[in-house]
Amino acid sequence: MQIAAFTLIAVVSTTASAATEAVMKQEAMRGDYQSQRNLAYSYATGWGTPQSPNYVPKKPVDACAWYRVIATSTNPKVQSADYSNEWTYCSKLSPDQSESAWILAKRLIKQIPAK
């Protein structure tokens, strides 16, 4: 039974990593909760190398902005971990970076359709 659970986790993880930055952003801008989380995490940690087709550069300000988009949304899928992610990744920014993240988050919130 554990093997099946491990396989499922691996498949989900592989599917998330298979998306390019552009695809994740497109889905996130449509209001897809999981794509927003995947994009925020990818920006927070970076993904792949510049030579890989799925490369996502580390962008701490963008990561924080997306975590703020998620945390301020009314999506019923938002959970306590989302608020924790916002605090964890945004608290690492300088005051100027945090302000830039809020500006970006506000712009994104206006562009994303309510769910």
Please characterize this protein's 3D structure.
With 115 residues, the chain is mostly helical. It has one domain. The protein is built from six helices and no strands. α2 (21-29) crosses α3 (33-45), α3 (33-45) runs antiparallel to α4 (60-72) and α4 (60-72) packs across α6 (95-111). The longest helix is centred in the N-terminal third of the chain and has 17 residues, at 2-18. The radius of gyration is 15 Å and the shape is globular. The N and C termini lie far apart (36 Å).
What key attributes describe this structure?
115 residues, mainly alpha, 6 helices, disordered N terminus
Q: Name the shape in a single word.
A: globular
Give the proportion of residues in helices: 55-70%
Strand content: under 5%
Rg, rounded, reads: 15 Å
How many DSSP-defined strands?
A: 0
Q: How many domains would you count in the coordinates? A: 1
The helix tally amounts to 6
Poorly predicted spans = 1-16
- Residue-averaged pLDDT, rounded? 87
Main beta-sheet annotation: none
Q: Layout of helices and strands, plus pairs?
A:
Blueprint: H1 2-18, H2 21-29, H3 33-45, H4 60-72, H5 80-90, H6 95-111
Helix pairs in contact: 2-3, 3-4, 4-5, 4-6
